[in-house]
Amino acid sequence: MQQLYISLTVNGDVHELNIEPRRTLMEILREDLELHGTHEGCGSGDCGACTVLLDNEPVPSCLVLAADADGRQVVTVEGLVQNGEPHAVQKAIVTHGGTQCGYCTPGIVISSVALLNENPHPNELEAREAIAGNLCRCTGYQKIVDAIVAVGRE
Q1: Domain spanning 88-153 has what CATH number?
Q2: What pairing do the DSSP bridges indicate for beta strands 51-54 and 73-75?
Q3: Residues pairing with 68 in the sheet
Q4: Low-confidence residues of the chain, pLDDT below 70?
């Protein structure tokens, strides 16, 4: 099978890999780099569980070919932790009770961080729009939205 050489920066670390051209970014993150915070939910970009930041834009990593991430910056939920401290969004979601099973939480956190990077003081509607691509069957979203808005008030 043909191999393709790629180099990408994930959570600040450069990774050089030989991959099969058909592999997705999600597969590389989970299988090669062992970053299991990026969850596989649907494999078709519909649920948002695999959302990562690709050059600061939230994308479903199950739809991005790893080859298309060559030379780019990727941030996963693991990369949000700085000096052992969770990101403000991670803390707020816990504080506001915005988790249940937690399967969707990494993607929601990434989508929320993308919003706050662009709009540091979102209102409830903006928070809802930012996480519209993230499916959650457990929480009903209100506590998550409250957490996002609260981070914007800090």
Answers
A1: 1.10.150.120
A2: antiparallel
A3: none
A4: none
